[in-house]
Amino acid sequence: MSDVESDEAGEHRAVVLDMLPTGRPDDDRPPQQKSPLAFALGEDDFLLSELTLAEDADIGFSDRIRPDDPVIEATHAIEFDALPNAARSELEYAIEDTIDRDEQRFVDFYNDAQPITLRLHQLNLLPGIGKKLRNSILDERKRKPFESFDELEERVAGLHRPKEILVERIREELRDDDLKYRIFVGRDEE
């Protein structure tokens, strides 16, 4: 299965992080009784999932897939700790690619972030952003909304690598299930 060139509006996709064509190595059943598996990251909600695939599935590493693809026989949400090591090592690249594909959505986070409580703002949840940097971002966005990460970095003194800050926060939300506030990673409804 290859990347689809143009996505339909509102179409949900996931990025394949790792493939286990012969199933889990810790499964003691004979190989012919095991289903191929894939591990994926949702592009909208950043939820992790394990996909049981049909034998003839033509899905590869880093493909973008739809959850309703007919080659996916079953899907269930998993926690970060359940990811194989290969999938964990690809996670940061998949997050970066997702942000690059929809940069404006993530730039708009800086444009639209709101207070959570009287003392805490969504921007303060980002690594390295304290009160002073938060206020600089808020002041600049009042003048004019940010249109790109480059513009954000250029206009806000002291803000370096705004995309990487988001990648780091998303990884933190994926790794730490006990975080009080989540701004990017959805919660599984199971």
From TrEMBL:
<dbReference type="Pfam" id="PF04919">
    <property type="entry name" value="DUF655"/>
</dbReference>
<protein>
    <recommendedName>
        <fullName>RNA-binding protein</fullName>
    </recommendedName>
</protein>
<feature type="region of interest" description="Disordered">
    <location>
        <begin position="1"/>
        <end position="36"/>
    </location>
</feature>
<dbReference type="InterPro" id="IPR012340">
    <property type="entry name" value="NA-bd_OB-fold"/>
</dbReference>
<dbReference type="InterPro" id="IPR007003">
    <property type="entry name" value="DUF655"/>
</dbReference>
